[in-house]
Fold this sequence. Notes:
The structure is a single chain. The protein has a single domain, classed as L-asparaginase, N-terminal domain (Rossmann fold). The protein is built from four helices and ten strands. It has helices spanning 31-38, 59-70, 86-93, 117-130; strands spanning 3-10, 15-17, 24-26, 43-52, 76-80, 100-104, 134-139, 142-144, 149-152, 157-160. Strands 4-1-5-6-7-8 form a six-stranded mixed beta sheet, with helices on both faces. The protein has a two-stranded antiparallel sheet with strand order 2-3. A hairpin with a 6-residue loop joins strand 2 and strand 3. The mean pLDDT is 94.
Amino acid sequence: xxxxxxxxxxxxxDKIYFDDKSDYQIGEPQIGRILDELGVAFRYSVIPxxxxxxxxxxxxxxxxxxxxxxxxxxxxxxxxxxxxxMVETAKVLATIPNKTIVxxxxxxxxxxxxxxxxxxIGTAVGAVQSLPPGVxxxxxxxxxxxxxxxxxxxxxxxxxx
Length: 161
């Protein structure tokens, strides 16, 4: 992997809460800060596309994300995305040939102590370097085929379907 292209779209991973998990905004992408703090041994670039809760991502947004990724020279792409509609966006990204695209996010904001953000990002970085071209979801310590996974909202985790 020459350089990792990271595309950010918002979601919980980048949320900033102003009061008890009700009033929030999507802040600056956190992934660059996280990778810098971890001292990773690869080059990367971060391309912020949108800053939305994934429940508010629509077909036009998905096309914008798809076009931005397709336009990149990089063969390895990591996408941070909200978990509620990650699977839907992954299906749109599956139309991009010859790239390994791994989507990840967090069930708790990266700014929160005990967030799963760092673990999910680490899993995604390993996956994007080792998997063949295609689109994958890295959540909860597993790599998922987007056509065979769903988010279980009640259990707050991803599971096979």
